[in-house]
Amino acid sequence: YTTPPLPQRHIFSRQVRSTAAQQMKTATPETHKPTSFTSSETVTTSPTGSDDSLVDPPGYIAPDQQDMMLTDITSAMLHSNECSITIGRGKEYLSPADSIQLPWPATGIIFGYNKRLMISLPCRRTRPGRGYGVLNVFFLVDTGSPCSYLSREAMEALINKPDCNLPEQLQVVIQNESFPMHFYMSPLGTQEHPGKFHDVNVLGMDFLIHNKLSMMVDTPIS
């Protein structure tokens, strides 16, 4: 098949600044207003309030308690031909990637009726020399999420050890070796009440802050 033109897209770019900040840019269709998020030096604290305290600060929500309504993104959808052509640019979800050393910019799309910011980025489990493969992982970018997540399916593919116990967190390098990141497992929920984003890989605010990224959403002028 051939890849159709993509009228809706967003571009993640990296620029060197005097503050060593990097830049993530996105371009949206004409129905969206320009939006910019500028990064700055951020002071982070322990999620328990301090290094010496075991009490969570007011308002803290544990990663496994986050509740995002992303039920429109499913494993079946991510494996579909449509997503392979649009999000993956011809590469299938969780297929072997060509390289982990890719430069910015990286281009994604605004996908579906709910206008999800989706992008495919090469990922590999850390621990060089262990033979872990590089895979094309489709992410949803959500600045409303404080944490970043990998679905159980993506974790299993990156670890590539059938029947092994999966960790609650997995460290992964993303896009290139200078972008290591800890990902939580997307909450599975229960059989009666499955997690609302258990199939979704999410890039949240911790990814943007940890890597000193800013996101700019631009409206093309025709």
Mean pLDDT across all amino acids:
74
**Cα-based radius of gyration, to the nearest Å:** 18 Å
Helix content: 10-25%
* Major sheet size, sense and barrel closure: 8 strands, mixed
Number of strands: 11
| Terminus-to-terminus distance | 29 Å
How would you sum up the global shape? Answer: globular
Share of residues in strands: 15-25%
Number of helices: 4
Low-confidence stretches: 1-7, 15-46
List the helices and strands in order: EEEHHEEEEHEEEHE
Category by helix and strand content: alpha/beta
Q: What labels would you give this structure?
A:
222 residues; alpha/beta; 3-stranded mixed sheet; 4 helices
List the helices and strands and how they pair.
Blueprint: E1 10-12, E2 24-27, E3 35-36, H1 75-78, H2 81-86, E4 106-111, E5 116-125, E6 135-141, E7 149-150, H3 152-159, E8 169-174, E9 180-185, E10 202-203, H4 205-210, E11 215-218
Parallel strand pairs: 2-11, 6-10, 7-9
Antiparallel strand pairs: 1-4, 3-11, 4-5, 5-6, 5-8, 8-9
The gist of it:
This protein is of the alpha/beta class.
Outline the structure in words.
- With about 220 residues, the chain is α/β, with parallel strands linked by helices.
- About 10% of the residues lie in helices and about 25% in strands.
- It is built from 4 helices and 11 strands; from the N terminus they run βββααββββαβββαβ.
- The chain has helices at about 75-80, 80-85, 150-160, 205-210, and strands at about 10, 25, 35, 105-110, 115-125, 135-140, 150, 170-175, 180-185, 200-205, 215-220.
- Strands 1, 4, 5, 6, 7, 8, 9 and 10 form an 8-stranded mixed β-sheet that branches. Strands 2-11-3 form a 3-stranded mixed β-sheet, with no helix packed on it.
- A hairpin with a 4-residue loop joins β4 (about 105-110) and β5.
- The radius of gyration is 18 Å and the shape is globular.
- The two termini are about 30 Å apart.
- Mean pLDDT is about 75; it is low at about 1-5 and about 15-45.
